[in-house]
């Protein structure tokens, strides 16, 4: 390890990430997932079906005046596990975890929805780019030249489409940023890009190098909340991780047959990470980065062995087409051709741990955390010190997961702590409503008990090398986690994105971004709207507020959309005062426990933005828009620094709108004039040094 001391200054606040998207976004980010059939064709019951099936039992139990318990028993009975105990309703103060501590204290005037090609911040604030696509990361990197790109240069420069951002302070005026580079958009990166067989090999290689992540050293500007890239000196921590960086597997599935390929007969090493979306940090100061829509990079699944095809399909990989499409990474690296290397796809879709303080360290794919379209992973500690990682699988009708380590975190014992994510239990969530199914009518109207809420269970899938799923080995559960979760009755959700624990209240907040495919017959209390274009936010309150618990209560504090739409809900707050919000994606918290939400794919016609909402106290539900990003962009990050004087946001895919190209850019952000748009991390701060939002 290069230098352990800055690591101790880490905040334990972790921060990590759709509707109205452009055709370019759909193609390049997720391989047009929405145009394909839903990958989850399992018979696994919709939760509405579950509620209906247990209603008669619930009626009997209600005679004992324990409605919430009844819901728990119903769900537990179906999963064959112990009954869940009753949890209190999520009223402010009822949990004994937050009470009225929510300080609110947010005093800025909300930014109005708009379509401006700039980053709009409230009065009294300023913003500036910190690091842009193509900026030199390694000290010997050439300056960015849009017209003369090379793969060699890109591998040393800041990658494309920045998503997850986290900040590691080193003293009060220096720090490191880690940033995920989710995907490349070749149609905006190259003039005259023709794609497929017509793409040049150099373009394909630039695409590979534009993926991954970056570590960059930044410095405070003056005494302000502004930060800028350090552009001089050694920059010892600066690093590029790409789709070709050597990585290794650890955990129960490492070395197993399912991970072995011709290039890696050991099943323990792999080149690169792909489509890294959101992420989190660990208590020991490393980054967790989620490989999301990895499926789109693989071609010719039609030629994979028949026995492999069901699992490939379950992960959204086409097994019928005999014509390769997409970025055609297979033209420069044969491993992306599944007819030749069918196991290569098994080697993506993991949580990757990266040490930002050791640029020579090998990133690790932690197999104990399962294989999904990982949005990200955020950590907290159970009451007994075990490490807990919350994770969403971002596709329509997919599930929510958590990992609980076997052993406890020991502050300062780095060697021990770095083994914690290799052994533990992986769970999947089941959400049960407490209102009669007839009251969840798809209108968005709250049921008669006043809330979309209920109880839930974490259903164990695998513990170490022991599978809890009949018919599947532990390695199979970890490599084909979706198939395992299908078998145990997990709840199909409206695209689970970021999920993170509130450091003040202990509540766990989950963004469910949207799901236009949910039908009226498929609504349930946790996903109560059909054709859900605007998404919602769900809070999990773990039993005894212990992240290690296996049962929980939940409710929907936020049902997104235009507040004038009766099918929206802002935790009961006066809807005439709140900002419209659509497609919540990333969530983060400031030190006061306020919930920050960034959006992706605003289906209300505005640019995407960053919002903040108190979650306790008198202003609970008072959601306000703090900033908007330029045309075509989504808002990622966000990261509020521990001193709360700066907020970093990743401005991903500016200008990515239908019909845009380098010949006709839709955005000129951040460089202005007639420049090409460049995905960038930006910072916003108050001109008088006030706390963000105050
Ligand atoms: Fe890459 Fe789930 O957003
Ligand atoms: Ca996301
Ligand atoms: Ca209810």
Key descriptive features of the protein:
694 residues; alpha+beta; eleven-stranded antiparallel beta sheet; six-stranded mixed beta sheet; 10 helices; 32 strands; 12% helix; 26% strand; disordered N terminus; binds MU-OXO-diiron; binds calcium ion
Walkthrough of the structure:
The chain is α+β, with helices and mostly antiparallel strands. The longest helix has 16 residues, at about 45-60. The strands form six sheets. Strands 13, 14, 16, 17, 18, 19, 21, 22, 23, 24 and 25 form an eleven-stranded antiparallel sheet that branches. Strands 8-7-12-11-10-9 form a six-stranded mixed sheet, with no helix packed on it. Strands 2, 3, 4, 5 and 6 form a five-stranded antiparallel sheet that branches. The two termini are about 40 Å apart. Helix 2 packs across helix 3 (about 65-80). It has ten helices and 32 strands. Helix content is about 10%, strand content about 25%. The chain binds MU-OXO-diiron and calcium ion (2 copies). MU-OXO-diiron binds near residues 292 and 585. It comes from Planobispora siamensis. InterPro entries: PhoX (IPR008557), TAT_signal (IPR006311). This is Phosphatase.
């Amino acid at each position: 390890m290069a230098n352990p001391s800055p690591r101790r200054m880490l905040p334990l606040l972790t921060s990590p990430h759709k509707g109205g998207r452009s055709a370019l976004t759909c193609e390049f980010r997720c391989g047009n997932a929405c145009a394909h059939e839903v990958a989850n064709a399992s018979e696994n019951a919709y939760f509405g079906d579950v509620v209906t099936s247990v209603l008669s039992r619930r009626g009997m139990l209600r005679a004992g005046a324990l409605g919430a318990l009844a819901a728990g028993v119903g769900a537990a009975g179906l999963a064959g596990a112990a009954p869940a105990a009753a949890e209190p309703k999520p009223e402010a103060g009822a949990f004994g975890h937050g009470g009225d501590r929510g300080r609110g204290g947010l005093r800025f005037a909300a930014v109005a929805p708009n379509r401006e090609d700039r980053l709009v911040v409230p009065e009294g604030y300023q913003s500036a780019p910190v690091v842009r696509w193509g900026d030199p990361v390694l000290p010997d990197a050439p300056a960015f030249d849009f017209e003369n790109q090379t793969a060699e240069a890109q591998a040393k420069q800041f990658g494309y489409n920045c998503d997850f951002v986290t900040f590691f302070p080193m003293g009060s005026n220096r720090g490191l940023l880690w940033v995920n580079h989710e995907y490349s958009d070749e149609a905006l990166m190259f003039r005259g890009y023709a794609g497929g067989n017509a793409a040049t090999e150099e373009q394909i290689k630039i695409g590979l190098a534009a993926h991954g992540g970056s570590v960059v050293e930044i410095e405070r500007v003056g005494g302000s909340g502004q930060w800028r890239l350090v552009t001089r000196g050694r920059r010892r921590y600066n690093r590029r991780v790409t789709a070709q960086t050597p990585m290794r597997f650890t955990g129960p599935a490492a070395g197993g047959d399912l991970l072995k390929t011709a290039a890696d007969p050991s099943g323990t090493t792999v080149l690169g990470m792909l489509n890294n979306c959101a992420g989190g940090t660990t208590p020991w100061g490393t980054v967790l980065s989620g490989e999301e829509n990895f499926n789109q990079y693989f071609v010719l699944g039609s030629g994979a062995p028949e026995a492999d095809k069901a699992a490939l399909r379950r992960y959204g990989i086409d097994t019928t087409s005999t014509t390769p499409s997409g970025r055609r990474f297979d033209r420069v690296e044969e491993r992306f051709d599944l007819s030749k290397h069918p196991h290569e796809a098994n080697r993506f879709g993991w949580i990757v741990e990266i040490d930002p303080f050791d640029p020579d360290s090998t990133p690790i794919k932690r197999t104990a955390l399962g294989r999904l379209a990982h949005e990200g992973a955020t950590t907290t500690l159970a009451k007994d010190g075990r490490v807990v990682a919350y994770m969403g699988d971002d596709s329509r009708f997919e599930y929510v997961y958590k990992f609980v380590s076997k052993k406890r975190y020991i502050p300062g014992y780095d060697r021990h702590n770095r083994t914690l994510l290799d052994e533990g239990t992986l769970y999947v969530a089941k959400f049960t409503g407490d209102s009669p199914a007839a009251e969840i009518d798809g209108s968005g109207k709250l049921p008669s008990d006043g809330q979309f809420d209920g109880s839930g269970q974490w259903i164990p899938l695998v513990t170490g090398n022991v599978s809890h799923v009949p018919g599947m080995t532990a390695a199979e559960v970890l490599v084909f986690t979706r198939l395992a979760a299908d078998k145990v009755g997990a709840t199909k959700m409206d695209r689970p994105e970021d999920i993170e624990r509130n450091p003040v209240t202990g509540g766990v907040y989950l963004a469910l971004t949207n799901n236009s495919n949910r039908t009226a017959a498929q609504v349930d209390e946790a996903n109560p709207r059909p054709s859900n274009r605007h998404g919602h936010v769900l809070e999990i309150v773990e039993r005894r507020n212990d992240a290690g618990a296996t049962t929980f209560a939940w409710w929907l504090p936020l049902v997104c959309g235009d507040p004038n739409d009766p099918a929206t809900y802002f935790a009961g707050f006066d809807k005439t005062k709140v900002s419209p919000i659509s497609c919540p994606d990333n969530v983060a918290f400031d030190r006061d426990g306020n919930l920050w939400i960034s959006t992706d794919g605003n289906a209300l016609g505005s640019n995407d933005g960053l919002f903040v909402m108190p979650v306790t106290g008198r202003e609970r539900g008072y959601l306000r828009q703090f900033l908007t990003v330029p045309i075509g962009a989504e808002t990622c990050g966000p990261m509020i620094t521990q001193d709360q004087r700066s907020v970093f946001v990743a401005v991903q895919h500016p200008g990515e709108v239908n019909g845009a190209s380098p010949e006709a850019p839709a955005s000129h952000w951040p460089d202005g004039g007639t420049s090409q748009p460049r995905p960038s991390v930006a910072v916003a701060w108050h001109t008088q040094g006030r706390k963000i939002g105050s």
